[in-house]
Write a structure and sequence with these properties.
By secondary structure, this protein is of the alpha/beta class.
């Protein structure tokens, strides 16, 4: 029986949300919101104080390898980074259904590597995962489950303090996570039934949190709201919402409102510029006013979306848009932001 999976998580002494029992962090989000970047930053943030973290991807895009500037990941756990502040390690794994199925057959049916390779060579595995698309997701989540549930009794496997899953987009996340339950209903007895029940027990427990990534635009925020509702309808625990790619607030709220109301005139701007020794011609003043209005309008739209995110009833975190692109150093910056906000 799964633990009670109500959300959001309890707060720590500082009042910030805490995830004391969570071992599996699932990161999803609408395409283009930067969910892979957020998953990588969260893995780095969790890899502190000597913690060992596994970062998994299941979509075959090799996004993790690109972010950490390492060769494409095989079906094998590879060290990709050290945690901040003399912390632990971040390992990464690209999970594919075919390799997972070979491992599954060997584990539960003792077919052995030679038989598994023969099945793969004749296309049996690819055929099986093609005619039953849900089977692919069962195999992918099964591998993640195995990584979460390892313990020190298994001397040949690395034990992790946390596992971060870069999961499919929000529109598919509920189906992806709940597919084990659907397969379990089809298999009344046997290894498949037992395995799917164990996976769903983890996914619906307090040891799992599904974090959704969004940006401050109408469609991504709406998809996030819909995703939270759907996850809850399946009894899957929702973690937090990460608002990614936020812009700096160049204007305070009162200044923004004044610009939008037309209360800031060219004469005022010109006078302010001349007071600090800037030669303010008409073109410069007009350009500054145009940029200020454009920024104020954007801020107004974003603040409306912030209010919508705040109304979702889950912890929210923000990560800035980095002007110089994304590299490993930037990932450490984002990881520090998540730690400071209490997500890790």
């Amino acid at each position: 029986m799964a633990d009670d999976a109500t959300d959001p998580a309890p707060s720590d002494a500082s009042g910030r949300p805490a995830w004391p029992r969570v071992k599996l962090h699932v990161v999803s989000g609408k395409g283009g919101t930067g969910k892979t970047t957020v998953a990588a930053a969260l893995a780095l943030a969790l890899a502190s104080r000597g913690k060992q973290v596994l970062l998994c991807e299941v979509e075959g895009r090799q996004g993790i390898a690109q972010l950490f500037d390492v060769p494409p990941l095989p079906y094998e756990e590879r060290l990709v980074a050290r945690g901040p502040d003399d912390g632990g390690d971040v390992y990464a794994l690209a999970v594919d259904a075919e390799s997972s199925m070979l491992e599954y057959l060997n584990l539960y049916y003792r077919l052995g590597n030679r038989t598994g390779r023969a099945l793969d060579r004749f296309g049996v595995i690819d055929f099986a995962t093609t005619i039953a698309p849900g089977l692919r997701d069962v195999l992918l989540t099964g591998k993640v489950y195995e990584a979460v549930e390892r313990n020190s009794r298994n001397k040949n496997a690395r034990v992790y303090d946390a596992v971060v899953l870069d999961a499919p987009p929000t529109g598919r996340i509920s189906q992806f996570l709940n597919v084990n339950g659907e397969f379990g209903d089809l298999a009344r007895v046997g290894a498949v039934r037992g395995q799917t029940e164990r996976v769903m027990g983890l996914i619906k427990s307090r040891r799992t949190a599904v974090h959704l990534v969004t940006v401050l635009e109408d469609m991504p925020v709406q998809e996030t709201a819909d995703g939270i509702e759907e996850l809850r309808s399946h009894g899957i625990p929702v973690g937090g919402v990460v608002v990614n790619l936020t812009r700096p607030k160049e204007l305070e709220a009162e200044e923004r409102d004044a610009v939008l109301a037309g209360q800031v005139t060219a004469e005022q701007v010109g006078a302010d510029l001349r007071s600090v020794g800037v030669d303010a011609d008409e073109a410069l003043v007009a350009g500054l006013l145009h940029d200020a209005r454009d920024h104020a309008e954007r801020r107004e739209l974003e603040d409306r979306q912030r209010e919508r995110v705040a109304s979702l009833g889950v912890p929210a975190y923000e990560l800035p848009r980095l002007a110089d692109g994304m590299d490993l150093g930037c990932l450490y910056e984002l990881a520090a932001d998540l730690r400071e906000q209490g997500m890790a």
